[in-house]
């Protein structure tokens, strides 16, 4: 037998009386809800996204994207898609004809891409082992990075030769392309050629960007380094599994790149860039 429970003293949830809200607050909350959640204007832009430079009075999609639209997504005449010119403009379009070889669309509306941050963040990522770079590229693009450059530092275990590096770069660029489509970017971030650490420091130091070097031995908090007026460009340096050698940290700091910390916990090399970019995007009001 189960014991009998006395429910007399249990506090029951009470409905908050309407008098607790004034009319102005209630109206404002309703307006914000409708604007951000149920707006038809928002829903109009929630369609599959593709990038192309073939934009005139109408849009023509060819190649693998045409095959994907026709065979995988099974989109047909009247279906809508978002076409991006790759320069920060989104076009709301409707398909007028579709086949595996070409998809033609009429332009219904256009707007500035809302998925692009107003800072140019470049990630210098020291090469990790295995396929961790695939994850790093994908997440960096989703979070707003504009460029990813693979770097070979002294403690990198992965050191692909030129032929292997070229193949890896092609794969990473495809990952960046797909991530940009999925997350609503207005531009496709680029994956650069693999370079040495010393060269990466020279590139950053001469670019005018604010360089930030995430060092496992300590540094300043990001809130203390990145303040208003925010820089237009930020370079982020992340080490491989072994981190950085002391002389590498010294070289970076002598070149004007500031050492930063992500806290007292040691993050994995694939976690650190995700955390760093997310925090920077939040600080600069891009998240």
Description:
There is one protein chain. The protein has 287 residues and is α/β, with parallel strands linked by helices. It folds into two domains: 70 residues, Ribosomal Protein L25, Chain P, CATH 2.40.240.20; 164 residues, Alpha/beta knot. The protein contains nine helices and twelve strands. Strands 6, 7, 8, 9, 10, 11 and 12 form a seven-stranded parallel β-sheet that branches. A five-stranded mixed β-sheet has the order 1-3-4-5-2. Strand 6, helix 4 and strand 7 form a beta-alpha-beta unit. Helix 4 runs parallel beside helix 5. The longest helix is centred in the middle third of the chain and has 22 residues. The termini are far apart. About 4% of the residues have low confidence.
């Amino acid at each position: 037998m189960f014991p009998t429970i006395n429910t007399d003293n249990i506090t029951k949830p009470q409905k908050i009386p309407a008098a607790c809200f004034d009319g102005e607050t209630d109206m404002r909350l309703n307006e914000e809800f409708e604007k951000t959640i149920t707006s038809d204007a928002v829903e109009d832009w929630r369609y599959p996204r593709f990038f192309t430079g073939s934009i005139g009075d109408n849009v023509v999609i060819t190649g693998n994207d045409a095959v994907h639209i026709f065979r995988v997504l099974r989109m047909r005449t009247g279906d809508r898609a978002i076409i991006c010119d790759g320069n920060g403009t989104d076009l709301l379009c409707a398909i007028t004809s579709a086949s595996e070889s070409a998809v033609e669309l009429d332009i219904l509306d256009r707007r500035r891409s809302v998925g692009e941050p107003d800072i140019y963040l470049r990630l210098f990522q020291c090469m990790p082992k295995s396929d961790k770079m695939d994850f790093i590229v994908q997440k960096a693009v989703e979070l707003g990075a504009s460029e990813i450059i693979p770097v070979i530092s002294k403690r990198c275990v992965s050191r692909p030769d030129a032929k292997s590096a070229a193949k890896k770069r092609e794969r990473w660029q495809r990952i960046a392309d797909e991530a940009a489509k999925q997350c609503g970017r207005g531009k496709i971030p680029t994956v650069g050629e693999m370079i040495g650490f010393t060269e990466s420091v020279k590139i950053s130091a001469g670019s005018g960007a604010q360089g930030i070097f995430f060092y496992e031995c300590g540094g300043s908090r990001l809130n203390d380094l990145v303040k208003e007026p925010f820089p237009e460009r930020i370079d982020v340096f992340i080490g491989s599994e072994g981190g950085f050698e002391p002389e590498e940290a010294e070289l970076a700091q002598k070149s004007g790149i500031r050492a930063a910390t992500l806290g007292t916990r040691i993050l994995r090399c694939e976690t650190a860039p995700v955390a760093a970019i997310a925090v920077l995007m939040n600080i600069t009001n891009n998240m």
